[in-house]
Amino acid sequence: MKTFPAGFLWGGAIAANQVEGAFETDGKGLSTSDMLPNGILSPHQSRDERTPGIKDLAIDFYHRYPEDIALFKEMGFTCLRLSIAWSRIFPNGDEAEPNEAGLAYYDRIFDELAHHGITPFVTLSHYEMPYYLAEHYGGWADRRLIGFFERYASTVFQRYQDKVKLWLTFNEINMSLHAPFTGVGLDEAASEAEIYQAIHHQLVANAKAVSLCHAMIPDAQIGNMLLGAINYPYTCNPDDVIAAMHENNKWLFFGDVQTRGRYPGYMLRYFRENGIEITMAPGDLEAIAAASVDFISFSYYASGCASADPKQKEVGNIVDSVPNPYLEKSQWGWLIDPKGLRILLNFLYDRYQKPLFVVENGLGARDEVNEQGEIEDDYRIAYLNDHLVQAREAVLDGVELMGFTSWGPIDLVANSTAEMSKRYGFIYVDRHDDGSGELTRMRKKSFGWYKQVIATNGASLKSR
Question: Which GO terms describe its cellular component (predicted)?
Answer without folding.
Answer: cytosol
